[in-house]
Amino acid sequence: MQMRDEGAAAPGSPLRGEPVPYWRWLLGRVLQVRLATVALTLITCVACMAVFAPWISPARPTDVDLTAVLRGPSLKNLMGTDELGRDIFSRVIDGSRASLSAGLISAAIGLTVGTFFGLLAGYFLGLVDMLIMRLVDAMLAFPGIILALAITAALGPSLTNAMIAIGIVSIPTFARLARAQVLTICRLDYVEAARCLGAPNRHIIIRHVVPNMLTPIIVQSSLAVAFAILTEATLSFLGLGVQPPTPSWGYMLNVGRGYLSQAPWMSLFPGVAIFLTVMSINLLGDALRDALDPRLRIE
Length: 299
Known about the structure:
Elements: E1 2-4, E2 19-21, H1 22-31, H2 36-51, H3 53-56, H4 88-124, H5 126-140, H6 144-155, H7 159-185, H8 189-196, H9 201-212, H10 214-237, H11 249-256, H12 265-292
C-alpha cells in the first residue's frame, strides 16, 4: 500500500507527489504527535531487552547468592538484589520477555478471533448476528480481570494459560468494534455498487470491507497490548501467571510487597518497568489514532 508524499521535495529525495510506502507515511504521521518519539524509543528499548535478554543481563536471573541478600542498588547490582540475592536488574530485563509475549500473543488472539466474529455478525446480520453478539454480551457482563482470573484458574497457572485467558477476555472488544465498522461500511455506495454488479460476498469482504475497517482495529490493538501486559502482571502477582523461578514483573511486585520497609527497590523497579511500558504503548496508540483518523489529521 502506498501514499502520496505531500511534503516539499528535499534535495536528493523523491519528487513531490511520488508514491511512498504506507509504513513510511504512517511513521511520519505518528512522529508528528508529541511524545510519540519518546514512546517509540521506550517500546524499542523494552523490545530489545526482551529479545536480547540472555546476552545483556549482567547475571543469570535465577542465580541465588545468599551472601548478597537484600543489597541496595550499587555499581555491581544496579537495581539491588532480592530476598535470595538474585540481581533485580537481570530479573527486570528477563521479565520483559513474559510481559511482551503476553501482550502481543494475547492481543493477537483477541484481534483475530474478535474481528472475525465481528465481521460475520456485521455483514450477515440476522441469526448469525444475534447468536454472536449475545455471546459477546454475556462475556462483557463479567469484569475483564475477573473473567481472566476464572479462566486461568480453570486452566491452571502458567504463562501460556494466562495468555489464552487474556486473549479470550479481549475478544468482545474487537468483536463489537469490528461489527460497528462493518455496519457503517456496508451502507456506503461502493459496497452497494459491488453487490449490484454481482460480486460475491467473499470478494466484497476481502476487497472492500476489511481494508476500510483496519484503522480503528489497529488503534485498538495497541491498547489491547497494554491491557494484556497489565492483566498478565496482575495474574502473576496473584500467582496465576508466570511461575517461579522464572522472572515476571507482576510476581516480583508480589514478593517485593513483603519487603517494602527493608528493600523498597524490590517493588520499585518492576513497578516502574510496568508503568513505562504500558504508558508508552498507550501514547503510541494515541499517536496512531491521531495519525489515522482523518478528523484528527495533523497538518
